[in-house]
Structures are given as structure tokens and as C-alpha cells.
Amino acid sequence: MTALPPALRPWATWLSLFPDDLALQLGAHAARLSAAVGGMRPRGEAEGGEPQGYDGLTRRGPFERLLVSEWLWALEAPEELVRRAAFGELSFLKPAFRQPRGALRTVVLLDAGPDQLGLPRIAHLALLVVLARRAEAAGAAFTWGALQSDPARGTHTGLDGNALLKWLEARSLEPASSHHLAAWREALALQQAPGDAWLVGAPRLARLDGTEGMSRVEVTEPMEPGAHRLAVDVRPAARVVRSVVLELPPPDDCLRLLRNPFGQRLTAPPVLIRKEKRLIGFAFSGDGRRMLLHHSDGSVAAMAVPHSPRATVPKPRRLQVPEGQRIIAAGWRSSGGLLVLARTGDDYVMHGQVRTPDGARKGRYHAQVEAERPDPPAGASPLRLMSLVDPRGQELIWMRDRREWLFSLPPPSATGTVPLLPLERHVSAMAEVRHKPVYVMRPPPDSSGLAFVARLGVLGEQEPRVAPLNARHGDAFFGYSPSGAHPDAGLLAVRHSANIWRLFLDTGVKEVWVPEPQRVVGVVQPPAPSPAGLLTLDSDLRTFNFFSQQSPRILALASNDVVQAEVSHGQPVFGWLTKAGELVLWDVMERTFLYRALPGAAP
Questions:
Q1: Which of 50, 97, 388, 571 has its CA 20 to 30 A from that of 523?
Q2: Superkingdom of the source (predicted)?
């Protein structure tokens, strides 16, 4: 990181965890809190300890420890020696004592309940930096955790990025109570002598049983219009109270500190899109690892998803169909590239070679019945194609239209066109999972028996498999999860009723309640220990929320009204397109921007 100002260098080891701009802002808070907290008191001569030489100079002491150079005053100017002794200006050797360092430690317990959610946690973060450095300077162990968490799993020793991320996730709707404190005191053996133990939270913590002998830091947010600061009272166990007022960073930086403190700002300017090539929609490819971009000039492009905010994005593979043709569907194959289906007259032509046992061919198709044409409405984004190469070397292709019909595109014929074959109706979602296309069918309106619930279908096998899903509505989303997902569908969420969604995992089915104003746009798996949950778009069309079996929280904020949002089922990424034409990709694991494209006049 950039060199810190001299005043912040004592905390450089811990501030280096954060981006440069956040480190400077957090360091300013750490400097003010450090002055209020003070250093750890070393054990003095009165506490025992064996003498171990000398450790610097002091202004007090017996004359047998008077510095040798001070005795010159007795020979040269005795009156000056008397004056210096009277005014405490003489220098004495300061004795050092051997101390049992192994028993010295600092314990910090932070309230993660509703009293301290939001901005007060910024003061908690700065205080952790202060106390970690303070403990290291005194040669003490450093132990800390969230008061509401289980001591067996929530105890951290040392301060690093992984521990801080777990602490940020440890938010609780349960206020801190005496039984929380009692559990920590027993687990850390703080019953008789808490030592250098700190309790951080609201003033109400002072009323808990078991706070005897513990130092406290009280953090409050002034209830004043326009106030953007925190009041911090440091109450050491054996010292006077010291108060500090922390002026908070700008709101955007506060959000980064609370949601993604280790993420970098975008180091490169956003990509500009030509005005005449305005983006009208996007979709993730069948395997979820590419983005298909649909432009107003009728072209389609396939773009690789960057692996980090600083990664260079290769130039997208773009295809423009000949004049007179209209793109109906598009897809991407890891081996074969872009695959685009376009309508020309009453027939359809495939741009991109389709594999057959006899070699690659260009497919041509026709609709058997006019009412069964899969054409999307004018101005809408094209449909998504999915393909699979079977053991014989034949490429099988499917697509789902906006009427929720699932179509099969038979192998190309050397003699002419082949028909588009409708396979299923009421298909609410489709994706490629573990190299096989899978889909979810909602129960039809006149269903009964097993058909009364949604069903999961698996394609690409000798005989298509269909299995019932215990969900009665049928809206569905596929998502990405590195482990713990359904063996056939991966991470799958299906609506069961108006506000209840069911997540199908390897351990069973879990229900998630989503309030009515929220619109579900996908299912995601944030970093552990957070469970999988649903990504929703708020009624303000800008706030992306996360709902799971834990407390709801905000995942990301858009700069303008969102007109389209989609979650990848092949990697922990979701994207959105705003009314202003901005395309954004957001990394769920790193909680930061991966990519932004703005409308403009790029050369």
C-alpha cells in the first residue's frame, strides 16, 4: 500500500489489510482512539518480578542509581545539583524486571446486536486495530469475538482479513445479555481476574451481570438531523473516562467499510459503449461462465466474465447477422464459440457450425405450426440456446421461449430444413448444470396428483428424467454453490407460495420467506458461514437485498433504476442493467464490482 503518514505508521501492519483510501480514514480514527485507550500498564516493582538490568532513564530514584554524568554537577557546580534535584531535573537509571509474559493477554468482546448495527461498527473496527497493536506492543496475546456468537466457534486470535469478514457476518437481532457474557467469561476463564478485558457496545452493557473488573467502550450515534459522527466513551477499569468524537467518512466509504472493507475501488475507468450500439439486454450463457450481450443494432456478443476488478477483459466475440435477418436466440459453447439462431423469412438459420457425427454443418429450421414460433417480441432480448454433444458426436440443442415452451432443435439435415420440436410446456427455468441441461416445470393450471407440484427435468441422457419437487408454484432460479447443492440441479430455488421459496440442497429443503415488495431475481451463496439465500430487487429498483434463514441484509446498490438483473449459476456473480444503460457485474464472494460498462461515445 502507499506509505502511510508518520502519525499512522504504528498501525501500518493492520491498516495494510485495507485499500489505501480506507486505511487513511480508518487510521485517523485509530489514532484518536489510541490516545483515549492508552497503553497496557507493565507490571511494576510493587507487583513482584525479578530485577533484570536497566530499561532507560527516569526522573525519580535513589541516588545510588543517579546517572554518572549527573555527579559532575557536584564537582563543578554544587548549587546547580541542589537546584536540579529540587525541581526533579536529575536523570536516574530505570530498573527493569522480568515479567511472566505468557499470562498477559487482551480480550475484546464486541456487541453485534441491534444496538450496534450500522455505523457504530466502524468504531468497533478502528478499536480492534488499536487494541491489536496495543497488545502486540506489550507482548500480550490478543483474543476477541462477537458477544452474541458461540465462543467455541467465534473466538479469534489475532487480527486478519478472514477473521474480520466472519465478524462482519456475525450480525444478530438478539440484544446482548448476561448469559452471552457469562458464556464468554467461562470459555476464556475470566471469572476471577478478567485482566485486560474490554466490552464494546452501547451504554446498556454496563447493566449486565458479570461486567465487574472489565473495561468498557461505549459507542453511540447522535440522534441529530444531518449528524454523521459517532460519540465514543472509553472507560478503562482503573482510569478516568475519556470521550472521543469520530467524524465518519462519506456514506459510500462507510458502506464499503461495513460490507466490503478489503475490496478495491475500480482502478480503471468504466468501459464506454458506442451510442449506436446501445445495450438492450444481457444473459449468462448456458454454463453461466460467459455473458451474452444484445445490442440495439441487432448484434450479439459473448464476453468473458473477469475474474477480478483489476483483470483485463478480452475483446468480446461479436456477431452481426446479414440484413433482413433477426436474431431469435443465442448461446455460447466452450468448444465452438457463439451459436446464434436468426429468422429469415419463414425459416430459421443457425450461425455457427453444429456438430454431427459426419462433421460440422449449418442448421436450417422451420416451425411446423405458426402458433408455435418461439420468436421473442420486437425489441426484446433474444432467447438463450443450450447445447450438449452426446457420445456419438452429435450436438443437441435446446431453447426456452418467453411463453415457457421448451424446444428441441434436431440435428441439421443435408437435404433441407428440419422442424423445431416443442418438448414441454410451463418450463419456468433452464440451465446447464454439471454439463447437462436441466429445467423446472411449474404445475399446469389443471394439474392433480404428482403434477400438482413442480418437476425437475434432466436432458442429455438416453431417457429424459423427471423428478417431482415439493413446491407448488413453480417459479424457479438456478444459482452457483461450491458445495452443499442439489445433486442434479445445483443450487435451486423454487417458489412454493406467494411469499415462501424453497431451496433444494443436498441436506434437504429449506424455506425462505420473502416480503411482498421484493422481487426475486436469483439465488446466491455468499461466503461462509452465511447460508444460501435469495437475491431480491427492492421496490426502489436500486437496492439488492439478500434473504435467507438469517437476518436480511443489503448486498449491493445500483446507481440508477434497474431494468434487468440476472444471477449466474456457473460462478458467484450477478449482473444488472440500469435505465441509463449501465451494465454492472458484482462479485458475491469479494463483495465488489467486477465490471462496469457505461453508454458513451467510445472511439
A1: 388
A2: Bacteria
Mean pLDDT of 508-524: 93
Check if the beta carbon of residue 372 is closer than 8 Å to that of residue 422. Answer: yes
| Set of cell numbers at residue 17 | 489489510
Sheet containing 105-110, strands listed edge to edge, beginning at the edge strand earlier in sequence = 156-157, 141-146, 105-110, 196-201, 215-220, 229-235, 242-247
Rounded CA separation 480/167 (Å)? 24
- Residue 293 in contact with residue 282, Cβ under 8 Å? yes
Q: How far is it, in rounded angstroms, from Cα 548 to Cα 511?
A: 8
C-alpha cell at 361: 454443418
pLDDT of residue 602: 39
Residues 6+ apart with CB under 8 A from 334: 287, 289
pLDDT band at residue 273 using 50, 70 and 90 as cut-offs:
low
The sign of the torsion formed by the CA atoms of 452, 456, 458, 462 equals: negative
Residue owning grid cell 522480568: 98
Q: Supply φ then ψ for residue 497, to 5 degrees.
A: -150, -170
C-alpha grid cell for residue 415? 437435404
The string of pLDDT tens digits covering residues 85-143 is 888 889 998 887 765 544 478 999 999 999 898 899 999 999 999 999 999 888 888 99
Higher pLDDT, 334 or 311: 334
User: Distance between CA atoms of 161 and 264, rounded to whole angstroms?
Assistant: 14
Helix, strand, coil share (%) of the chain residues, nearest 5: 20, 35, 45
Pairing relationship of beta strands 337-344 and 347-351 according to DSSP bridges: antiparallel
Q: Are 26 and 225 in contact (CB under 8 A)?
A: no
Q: What's the distance, Cα to Cα, between the start and end of the chain in Å?
A: 34
* Cell digits of residue 291: 455473458
- The whole-number pLDDT of residue 574 equals 95
Locate cell 466475440: which residue? Answer: 317
Burial class (CB in 10 A: 0-12, 13-18, 19+), 22: buried
149/399 Cα distance (integer angstroms)? 47
DSSP per-residue letters across 81-123: HHHHHHTT---EEEEEEE--GGG-EEEEEE--SGGG-STHHHH
pTM over 0.70: no
